[in-house]
Amino acid sequence: MENKAEDVKMMEQRLACLRLAIDELPPKCKKALLLNKIEGYRYKEIAESMGISVKTVENHISKAFKLLKKR
Hints:
82% of the residues lie in helices and 0% in strands. The protein is an all-alpha fold.
């Protein structure tokens, strides 16, 4: 039972670190990432809502993942 509690605590710590890292992303990267991964929007929908090209959405999300991996 103790091991499961430790696993839960570790997962909570990882989620807290991830939330902090996401909050520190550049605003457009953060918005594109959250719209895609949390809200489920497609790249085309994100591009239309942000007034940018699909390629720019791809670039923002790619940059967001690179920055998150560094953390």
